[in-house]
Amino acid sequence: MKLGIIGSGKIVHDFLTTADKIADLELAAISTTPRSKQIAQDLAEQYQIAEVFSDNDELFSDPNVDTVYVAVPNSLHYGVVKKAILNGKNVICEKPYVATVAEAKELKQLADEHHVIIVEAITNIHLENYLAIKRALSKIAPIHIASLNYTQYSSRYDDFLKGKIAPVFDPAKDGGTLMDLNIYNIHLAVGLFGKPEAVQYYPVMQKGIDTSGILNLTYPEMQASLIASKDCYTTPRSFIEGEKGSIFFDGSTGVIDRFSIELRNGDTDSFEFNHYKHRMASEFNDFVKIIDNHDTKTADELYDHSITVMDVLAQAKKSVAK
């Protein structure tokens, strides 16, 4: 994969720290705004990125780029992804994918017409620990309760209270805790349990944006409570509870460093299967294989998963308006 990166924000800095752990990845280019070009140049020098652009069209025209990693504010995803596809580039788009299911379906149709791959970058469903948890569900089944928690006091929350609004707290830029943090819980719940029958979101609203909230998902014989917060502090713990036992883990639902299984007979074991220390390494290793092999079957499966997540998000937003 010859990767062109669009964006130079926090997530790009984070990704580049683990880029050397991704097999068969070439950092071909980075593009950012003219205002941030020096940041991009510094990143290019530090991580040996071949080209630096301050105009995305130049990156789209670069023949040495076959895949674009879209890491810009949420509200810009659709436009950037569409232009990348129209220029014949494969696309890795940061979560959340785009604003609506209709936009996602349009982009997928365009990608198919241009014979390129499009995938959503979401860490947890590519982690080895996630896959192990999914396999272990039968050990505690039938499952009736799940509580997934991603609480992370935002480094931008204090500024938000003072009136300085970053994109992650800006409703006009598709910010908020549902889109920024609870989306990890949704991906995890959909991956483990499938599409829910009913969705209801209970947000804590400040200055017109959800700074924390609880999302309830109803399944035929199970209730899932998805908790996320950017305005509270705790070490979060997530539980999956069944008749034969429970699975639980501490920390971010986007990382899942380790997990434990506690059975009703008293047996308890802890497990660590993740191959990499950095949460983004597994997903990008998967993306390289999918794109380099033009594995449309796996890409389509990931797309179907993303569409289900987007449908849950749409229902969650609609439920607040009732």
UniProtKB/TrEMBL annotation:
The organism's place on the tree of life at top rank: Bacteria
Gene3D superfamilies cross-referenced by the UniProt entry: Dihydrodipicolinate Reductase, domain 2, NAD(P)-binding Rossmann-like Domain
Stretches assigned to the Gfo/Idh/MocA-like oxidoreductase N-terminal domain: 2-118
GO molecular function (one): nucleotide binding
GFO/IDH/MocA-like oxidoreductase domain mapped to chain residues: 164-247
Protein name stated in the entry: Oxidoreductase
